[in-house]
Design a protein that fits this description.
With 262 residues, this protein is mainly α. 75% of the residues lie in helices and 0% in strands. The chain crosses the membrane at residues 12-31, 56-77, 89-111, 131-156, 168-188, 194-214.
């Protein structure tokens, strides 16, 4: 085990948060978020008028999104420690994390495409903006499942010395719940559930930011326990099963060798 690699993966969520703030907020200027109720001319004026800032800001976001994959890998590794040899939750979480990164990158390029041609009609620019914002806020299923799986895994750790504090599991389940209001932004052009609303966007965004800070703290601490991994029942069962299979394999090999000598 390379401790530095695992520490970098653990803290990659927080590093991603910093990079996203720089790219999405400071450079691209996407917060405060403009209303979905704006007409096509207003949308086009903003995007074309700020196209250079938007392009560079979203390039930063695109590059930093890869850090979320490292973050998902860190969670999966420690979930595997909890679950043992058949880590269903760890695999689901890692898969959802990979999908989340792909979704994020793909949606970024709708905005990039909107900035690409200054002579494009305002209606088409508005369409591309809608195609980016609606799923960017509303595509919640992958993130919800990813976070919920981690929370459940933490709660399933019944060992004498759990890898994570139990409250972290409940916290992650709460985070998953708080992501869900954005799902309904497609029905609203204004109000708290619109893509710039407090329930659909700003509260989930703030919760997401805390998730990228709180989890890394405990993932980093979990790295420190890997060398002296305290076995939970699941881990003991997994190790015992592996030992039994290895012994059986050795016996089969010995039997084959004995037969070949006859």
């Amino acid at each position: 085990m390379n401790r530095i690699v695992h520490k970098c993966c653990a803290w990659s969520g927080a590093m991603c948060l910093v990079a996203m703030l720089v790219g999405f907020v400071l450079i691209a200027g996407f917060i405060p978020t403009r209303s979905p109720g704006e007409n096509a001319s207003e949308v086009a004026q903003f995007i074309i008028g700020h196209r250079t800032r938007i392009r560079w800001g979203l390039i930063v976001c695109m590059l930093s999104s890869s850090l979320l994959m490292m973050y998902a890998a860190s969670m999966a590794i420690h979930m595997r420690r909890i679950e043992g040899r058949h880590p269903a939750l760890a695999l689901i979480q890692f898969g959802m994390g990979a999908l989340f990164v792909l979704e994020f990158i793909y949606l970024i390029f709708f905005w990039q495409t909107a900035t690409f041609r200054v002579d494009r009609s305002p209606e088409l620019i508005q369409l591309l903006n809608d195609m980016a914002w609606i799923p960017f806020v509303g595509l919640t299923s992958t993130a919800v499942v990813q976070v919920a799986c981690f929370g459940i895994a933490v709660l399933l750790d019944t060992g004498e010395h759990p890898i994570f504090p139990r409250w972290l599991g409940y916290y992650n389940l709460w985070v998953a719940l708080m992501f869900t209001p954005g799902t309904f932004n497609v029905f609203f052009h204004s109000g708290p559930l619109a893509w710039n609303g407090i329930l659909a966007w700003y509260i989930p965004l703030a919760v997401f930011a805390t998730w990228l800070v709180i989890n890394p703290i405990y993932l980093s601490r979990a790295v420190d326990t890997m060398a002296v991994d305290v076995a939970t029942p699941a881990r003991v069962a997994g190790n015992a099963s592996a030992s039994t299979e290895l012994s059986q394999l050795r016996a089969d090999v010995d039997q084959l060798l004995a037969q070949s000598r006859q």
